[in-house]
Amino acid sequence: MKKIALVTGATSGIGRATALLLAENGYNLIITGRRTELLDNLKKEIEVKYKADVLPLSFDVRDKDQVDAAISNLHERWRKIDVLINNAGLAAGLNHVQEGLEEDWERMIDTNIKGLLYVTRRVAPIMIEHKGGHIVNIGSIAGSEVYENGNVYCATKHAVNALSKAMRIDLLKSNIKVTQIRPGMVETEFSIVRFHGDEDKAKNVYSGITPLFAEDIAQTILFVLTRPAHVSINDIEVTPTQQASSTYVTRNL
Ligand code: NDP
Ligand code: 8X3
């Protein structure tokens, strides 16, 4: 029987690439996000290309009731979730703290921290019931470093770093592996969202470098998921070759 992976934030970027790669490598997929049409398109694409079964679930991870309804009403056939990829997340704004927009802060805290917790709270008991699983949290290099204007985004990813370590301890006895992956610059919709839709500003983030692509992180996820049962990869930082830290990047200008 194929394993089941639930990927949050599968409508775009890292989540979408991960769903495709896992389907190609023998998983059935539960794909989630708010944009229903993109989920439906991805379902069709996966079914045609990889003959995997796909269940699209549209919900906002910030809404506890929506998360609850989606996961507790899963049909028996989809309830044995083997893998959870906690990927849904965003940065909103890039301002000094004294100029930050409170609505941006709330979006990031509610999505990156509380959303990840709401989904985990409902999926981990299912894994425990089935005697094991693997949770992959998408953190960031912003979870181990802080950079100018990054304040609240960095704080949310520091929280993901702490939660990943805490989850590993709490779930150890239940045979659930917890891996954190901390990417550097990956060209996705991330910067477009961060700059509230300003595509020129977003493009500029990656000027003069070859950034990571979503598929690079998907490959990293596949690697950690396919290690033998006795091997747990706990934490991986992945950056473009031209990036040594959040603030140290060489550009071909
Ligand atoms: P994208 O913007 O391309 O994708 C983000 C995904 O998250 C979308 O599928 C979006 O779906 C989903 N999402 C956002 N908010 C919500 C919500 N409230 N409820 C449900 N789903 C939501 O960005 P990335 O692929 O780059 O980002 C994925 C993860 O990787 C994030 O956690 C990000 O912080 C992290 N990351 C990204 C880096 C980068 O440079 N790109 C570097 C390091 C980490 P929808 O809009 O349909 O709801
Ligand atoms: C995204 C990477 O450097 O923009 O998490 O914070 S960075």
From TrEMBL:
Signal peptide feature range: none
InterPro entries: NAD(P)-bd_dom_sf, Sc_DH/Rdtase_CS, SDR_fam
Keywords attached to this entry: Oxidoreductase
Organism the protein comes from: Acetobacteroides hydrogenigenes
Record's protein name: NADP-dependent 3-hydroxy acid dehydrogenase YdfG
GO molecular function (one): oxidoreductase activity, acting on the CH-OH group of donors, NAD or NADP as acceptor
Assigned protein family: Belongs to the short-chain dehydrogenases/reductases (SDR) family.
Keyword Transferase among UniProt keywords: no
Domain of life: Bacteria
UniProt xrefs under CDD domains: SDR_c5
Entry keyword S-adenosyl-L-methionine: no
